[in-house]
Design goal:
The complex is a heterotrimer of chains A (438), B (692) and C (160). In chain A, a hairpin with an 8-residue loop joins strand 8 and strand 9. Chain A is of the alpha/beta class and 438 residues long. Chain A has a 5-stranded mixed beta sheet, with helices on both faces. Chain A has 18 helices and 11 strands. Chain A has 3 domains: 212 residues, Rossmann fold; 84 residues, Roll (Ubiquitin-like (UB roll)); 105 residues, NADH-ubiquinone oxidoreductase 51kDa subunit, iron-sulphur binding domain (de novo design (two linked rop proteins), Up-down Bundle). Chain B folds into 4 domains: 88 residues, Ubiquitin-like (UB roll) (Roll); 173 residues, Alpha-Beta Plaits, CATH 3.30.70.20; 241 residues, Rossmann fold; 128 residues, Dimethylsulfoxide Reductase, domain 2, CATH 3.40.228.10. Chain B is built from 23 helices and 28 strands. Chain C has 160 residues and is an alpha+beta fold. Chain C contains 7 helices and 5 strands, in the order ααααβααββββα. Chain C has a 5-stranded mixed beta sheet with strand order 2-3-1-4-5. In chain C, strand 2 and strand 3 form a beta hairpin. Classes of the chains: A alpha/beta (438), B alpha/beta (692), C alpha+beta (160). Chains in contact: A-B, A-C, B-C. At the A-C interface, strand 3, strand 5, strand 11 and helix 13 of A face helix 2, helix 4 and helix 5 of C.
Chain lengths: 438, 692, 160
């Protein structure tokens, strides 16, 4: 795995051990503040831990951005049922490749985050659900977990505190939908990765119908530093209502793509131009997917903004998962739209009608349009069908498919029209005949 | 109930219990929110998105099937946004749905058609190629056409939750998802057809019904299934004097929508090629077809001779005949022919139970009790095989009320899947006693028992029930559609109607067969000489009324073709004592209902046994058979009236040795089953008790 | 059916990694790891895993049909997965895919006649910042060029 030295403009907190030699080993970890936060948390009260996380303004790094402390606070700690910790390491949002680094270079940080969360809600067992393609990371995590057991940071009576916590990895098997938390839980239980009816949310009824803290890898990884340095400190790194730093995965048409840690609110153009080395020579920025392919794309002139939840919402998009896809003026937006919908169609679990049928229909139309076959009203139809999925599907996958599609068709309509103009319709052949023909 | 929640649906003030789902609250107040996947009684899916409604203060449309009501909620089920959402969801749904409605069995009663009619767009914008896969046959009964499937998962749930079979699953993903049977390319299941009936579209179709008719060409006749004793209502689809299907989609009857393979498909015996359609009289050792007049005359003349000569006449009644027929038969026999020798094939010791419950009230369980009791104990019965509806009730009780189920059987049974405790033993009473401490914990209990508990054991079982200190109710299982009625009507040598001791104790069926002096044997819908048995009396004049030329009929002097339950009216009493009315669905040329035949013989003999007419006989039953004084409007409107037979001692108890269940499975039905080709075609899954 | 001692040990540990009575949770991991050894989810393997996890074979089928990494047919000795999702697409993922498909003469989820290589156009494999990326079995290859892919395929063909 290529990992560059940190860029000077980065604020390295959760990535601060990445560049250390043998960074994944427990020895390196312990030599660099490892498990100090867990040690501290083991002596803290549950409320104190949760309050610290609440104060930190840490928001879920998987994409939805739900306040983590609040989520932990929903766990009914008095419930007689066992509580569980589940790590969402099913990283599969196109454009996103940060959890890979966290698990590859600092697996013990994740274990430490889980341990703190377990203490916070009284959980004694947890699983790291890792996407099947990341087998080498499962091996790394398994090794780190074994080290942690050996050093008594996992298992019975952790560090003599009387607290028990077991953790194991769990492989996925190829399904984007399992990144959705309730689908992940179904998958964890050995079923098809189809989302559950919510409420109840996992905090109340999660893994095996027991209260469960389910967060993204990066979210758990942020916790040790919060405990160590205080929630206020973490909050101060970011913007109001969204604390700390996060990993940006920059990909696409930049000279030095990579994963960079920046405070929330970092300017998007600085990330592109400074950290990622800017665009290729002679190329101009055309569009940016700011946080994974589920987000509406931003046109070049919309990109001069700070990377925080509110600013992106104001711009009509989302901060998402941190997966920034940079597209320069060579990008074929019709192809981009097709590729994105092809993905969501492939990953649609099929549970609900609008997503199952909508994504397939859209794929069929966009495939045609990409070939230049179609009529102008087809372009409208794409937008309308995507709108008809929006807000009506069982889980967010429908919106994830619809939002980028709507934005591309709206913002780059001219490219679709130009594509259609490339195919010559013989004189006298009406639009309806073309329609029948296709 | 805690304080009701007040909400407004479509401008109407509505009250509902806390926790009620919006779709149910709307339904309770007469507002139907459309849905495909939502189905009352089964788990929630929220998959079809048809029930999206506008709820004030929610930014997005909400699924009414999963949203619990809340105080002050304001709902608009037909808001423009909701209607538009339905229109577009239907547009999505139709993209891959073949519009082959003209040749689809479901056409005319398809929920998708209805939904599109109400909410769909007037034109289709879909011009792409549809995804096609070929239709598959999963069993003689079940066909699956994946392109028509809208993936509402009703079939999966009814099979898993309703039937406890879990023979259907979902494979593949996304738009290519399909329903899949449990054995790769075919089904190994109850073949009940519940999945077909519950399918809102024509994705699952029945091998029996497909391509037979348009639904509007049928007459729908709600009657009672003639197979087991559970008394399910089946609605026969009759066209041109032929039954083309059975179902219970209107949910009337004690069974709601439940039917097993027999109720849904095993009506085909009526048109079996061996069906008798002409009376026959033995001449020169051979049965020859004669007219009804001739046959009746022959019977009446011979009966009169034997009666005059004081010869012994044995009468074997039927477990499929109506109450009216059984009552009339015993009355005709006892008063008209002057014979006490009346019996039928007994399959459960109901008299012993009634005797043991003397002095108790409300101790006989109904089908409904099995759904509401906190605990159910099944003793010596493979309920799912032998009493599929009762088993369905128990499963629904577990699902909806978390009832505790206990089983004491000699081998594994399906009820064990959800049982709190399952005991395998042939010493049923010992097994039952071992559960005493567990059973005591529950608020009430229903004990269902088979023929392994009979005679004195019934009394011991009831004594055990008394010792628990909780209300206990009982079901004594019997085999066939009117096994219970046959006993209630007094088709017993020891007991007359209403379990009154007979004036003279007659011979039982085995005694009749063994009697050297038997002068006549009149067999109505029974086969006492099955397997080629011979009467000890060589001179007996044998008369048989039946649908088929049974083993007994082959030895008969006169054979009279009788009508099946689907070809006549009258009442039957199910295993739990619920009286229901048969409704005639069709005529079979040449066959006559037993009651009509009795009337003809009585008239020819000049015997007055009352009017051989259903209403008149039933009126007499109401007056003279204890427990049958039931309200007529209930029956007339197709309801089930509860018989409360007696509440007192039965002074003469029949011989328990004569009680023996035929031990049918889902795919056998005594002598009738042999003539159902459909039952014979699906032999793959008899219950575990029947293996080997 | 029995597996190698190492796999058996892993499976035993796997079954203990979930709350009692929840052995079904081991279903997907068990399918993944046994598939690695057996090659694909044969009927026999499905039945074996069903037995070990206490589910029906239908429940195994439901799962196998859902997850793209679970395969009911035999794949090549090396399963070559080429990502063409958005980040890879922008930097030549599609060209890699076209090239491999043409060179091998096989399409999506097909296997070469000699059984050495199977090809799959995969969705995002989480290598966006190091695109275009491919996977050979579980190994990642980043910043892949057409020449590298060419050479890789030649090498893989030699592994029989």
């Amino acid at each position: 795995m290529p990992y560059n030295k940190p860029h000077p403009a980065e604020t390295i907190i959760i990535s601060r051990r990445f560049h250390l030699p043998n960074s994944a080993s427990i020895d390196t970890f312990l030599a660099h503040d490892g498990y100090k936060a867990a040690r501290k948390a083991l002596d803290m009260s549950q409320d104190d831990i949760i309050n610290e996380v609440k104060k930190s303004n840490l928001r879920g790094r998987g994409g939805a951005g739900f306040p983590t402390g609040m989520k932990w606070g929903f766990v009914p700690r008095q419930s007689p049922k066992p509580k569980y910790i589940v790590v969402n390491a099913d990283e599969s949002e196109p454009g996103t490749c940060k959890d890979r680094l966290l698990m590859e270079f600092d697996p013990h940080r994740l274990i430490e985050g889980c341990l703190i969360a377990a203490k916070a809600v009284g959980a004694h067992q947890g699983w790291v659900y890792i996407r099947g393609e990341y087998r080498y990371l499962i091996d790394i995590m398994d090794k780190a977990i074994a080290e942690a057991y050996k050093a008594n940071w996992l298992g019975k009576n952790v560090q003599g505190t009387g607290f028990d916590f077991d953790l194991s990895t769990h492989t996925g098997a190829g399904a984007y939908e399992c990144g959705e938390e309730s689908a992940l839980l179904e998958s964890l239980e050995g079923k098809r990765g189809q989302p559950r009816i919510r409420p109840p949310f996992p905090a109340v009824s999660g893994a095996f119908q027991c209260p469960t803290i389910l967060n993204n890898v990066e979210t758990f990884c942020a916790v040790p530093d919060i405990i160590l340095n205080g929630g206020d400190w973490y909050a101060s790194l970011g913007v109001p209502r969204a604390g700390g730093t996060r990993l940006l995965c920059i990909s696409g048409h930049v000279q030095s793509p990579g994963v960079f840690e920046v405070p929330i609110g970092f300017p998007m153009m600085r990330a592109i131009n400074e950290m990622a080395g800017g665009l290729r020579p002679g190329r101009k920025l055309k569009a940016v997917i700011p946080g994974g392919s589920s987000c509406p794309v931003l046109k070049a002139d919309e990109c001069d903004l700070p990377m925080d939840y509110d600013s992106l919402a104001k711009a009509g998009s989302m901060l998402g998962s941190g997966g920034m896809v940079i597209m320069d003026d060579s990008t074929d937006m019709v192809k981009a739209a097709l590729r994105i919908i092809k993905f969501y169609q492939h990953e649609s679990c099929g549970w609900c009608i609008p997503c199952r049928e909508g994504t397939l229909w859209l794929k069929k139309i966009l495939t045609r349009l990409d070939d230049g076959i179609g009529v102008r009203s087809d372009i409208d139809l794409v937008g309308e069908l995507a709108e008809n999925m929006l807000g009506r599907t069982f889980c967010p996958l429908g919106d994830a498919a619809a939002l980028p599609t709507i934005s591309i068709v709206k913002k780059f309509r001219a490219e679709f029209e130009a594509r259609l103009a490339q195919v010559q319709v013989p004189a006298g052949v009406s639009e309806s005949l073309v329609r029948i023909h296709v | 109930m805690s304080n009701p929640v007040n909400l407004t649906i479509d401008g109407k003030a509505v009250q509902a219990a806390p926790g009620t789902l919006l779709i149910d609250a709307a339904k309770q107040s007469g507002i139907l929110i459309p849905a495909f996947c939502y189905y009352e009684g089964y788990s929630l899916q929220a998959a079809c998105r048809m029930c999206l409604v506008e709820v004030e203060k929610f930014p997005k449309l909400q699924a009414a099937c999963t949203l619990p009501v809340a105080e002050g909620m304001v709902v608009r089920t037909e808001a423009a946004s909701a209607v538009q959402a339905r229109k577009t969801t239907l547009e999505f749904l139709l993209t891959n749905h073949p519009l082959d409605c003209p040749v689809c069995d479901k056409g005319g009663e398809c929920e998708l058609q209805d939904m599109v009619f109400r909410y769909g767009a007037g034109e289709s914008r879909f011009t792409e190629v549809k995804h096609h896969v070929d239709e598959k046959q999963w069993s003689p009964v079940v066909y699956y056409d994946a392109p028509r499937c809208i993936l509402c998962y009703r079939c999966v749930r009814v099979c898993d939750e309703g039937m406890g079979v879990t023979a259907l699953g979902i494979t593949h993903r996304g738009a290519y998802s399909e329903i899949t049977p449990n054995k790769g390319d075919h089904l190994n299941c109850d073949q009940c057809g519940a999945c077909i009936d519950i399918c809102p579209v024509g994705a699952l179709t029945s091998g029996i019904y497909r391509y037979q008719t348009r639904p509007w060409e049928m007459e729908h006749v709600g009657t009672i299934c003639t197979h087991c004793s559970d008394g399910c209502k089946t609605t026969l689809g009759v066209r041109n004097n032929e039954i083309v299907r059975g179902n219970n989609r209107d949910s009337t009857g004690i069974n709601g929508e439940f039917l097993c393979i027999k109720g849904r498909y095993a009506f085909d015996f009526i048109k079996h090629e061996d069906r008798l359609q002409s009376p026959m009289v033995r001449r020169n050792g051979k049965l020859e077809e004669v007219s009804w007049a001739e046959a009746v005359k022959a019977v009446a003349a011979r009966f009169a001779e034997i009666k005059a000569a004081g010869g012994a006449i044995g009468v074997a009644g039927s477990v499929h005949s109506t109450n009216e027929e059984s009552y009339f038969l015993q009355k005709f026999a006892r008063q008209g022919l002057g014979t006490p020798h009346i019996d039928h094939a007994r399959s459960g010791d109901v008299p012993a139970l009634i005797h043991a419950l003397a002095g108790k009230t409300d101790a006989l369980a109904t089908a409904d009790s099995l759904y509401h009791a906190k605990a159910v104990l099944v003793v010596d019965a493979d309920l799912s095989q032998q009493h599929p509806f009762l088993a369905f009730q128990v499963r629904a009780n577990v699902r909806h009320h978390q009832a505790a189920v206990y089983t004491v059987t000699r081998g594994p049974v399906r009820e064990e899947q959800t049982a709190a405790k399952a005991v395998h033993t042939a010493d049923y009473l010992a097994g039952v006693r071992g559960l005493g401490e567990d059973l005591k914990k529950h608020a009430d209990l229903v004990i269902v028992f088979g023929d392994g508990i009979k005679g004195a054991a019934v009394g011991e079982l009831v004594a055990f029930g008394d010792s628990l200190g909780i209300p206990v109710r009982y079901v004594c299982l019997v085999d066939y559609s009117n096994s219970r009625g046959a006993m209630d009507m007094g088709l017993l040598p020891e007991l007359g109607p209403g379990y009154h001791p007979a004036a003279v104790r007659g011979m039982s069926l085995p005694q009749m067969a063994a009697s050297q002096d038997l002068a006549a044997l009149w067999v109505v819908g029974a086969d006492p000489l099955a397997g080629g048995k011979r009467l000890a009396s060589g001179k007996a004049f044998v008369v048989v009324q039946d649908l088929f030329l049974t083993d007994t009929a082959k030895q008969a002097d006169v054979v009279l073709p009788s009508a099946s339950a689907y070809e006549k009216s009258g009442t039957v009493t199910n295993v739990t004592g619920q009286i229901q009315r048969l409704k005639k669905g069709l005529n079979i040329m040449g066959a006559k209902p037993d009651l009509e035949i009795f009337g003809l013989i009585a008239r020819a003999m000049g015997v007055d046994a009352g009017r051989a007419q259903n209403e008149a006989v039933f009126e007499e039953i109401r007056k003279s058979v204890r427990g049958y004084n039931v309200p007529l409007p209930v029956l007339a409107t197709g309801g089930a009236a509860q018989a409360q037979p007696v509440n007192g001692r039965v002074d003469v108890l029949p011989d328990p040795e004569l009680v023996r269940s035929a031990g049918d499975t889902l795919f056998t039905s005594g002598s009738l089953g042999r003539y159902s080709k459909i039952l014979g075609s699906v032999m793959e899954a008899p219950g575990a008790l029947y293996k080997g | 059916m029995t597996f190698s001692p190492e796999l058996e040990a892993r499976l035993a540990k796997m079954l203990e990694s979930y709350p009692k009575g929840r052995e079904r949770a081991a279903l997907i991991p068990m399918l993944m790891y046994t598939q690695d050894e057996v090659g694909h989810i044969s009927k026999e393997l499905a039945e074996e895993v069903a037995k070990r996890c206490g589910v029906t074979t239908l429940q195994v089928e439901e799962v196998v049909g859902f997850y793209t990494m679970l395969r009911t047919k035999k794949m090549g000795k090396t399963h070559l997965q080429i990502c063409t999702n958005i980040s890879c697409l922008l930097v030549g993922g599609d060209e890699l895919w076209q090239h491999a498909s043409k060179k091998l003469g096989i399409g999506h989820n097909q296997v070469t006649a000699d059984g050495s290589i199977s090809l799959e156009e995969v969705e995002c494999i989480g290598a966006c910042s190091w695109a275009p990326a491919i996977q050979t079995n579980y190994d990642f290859h980043h910043y892949v060029t057409l020449d590298q892919l060419d050479k890789l395929i030649d090498d893989l063909r030699r592994i029989q």
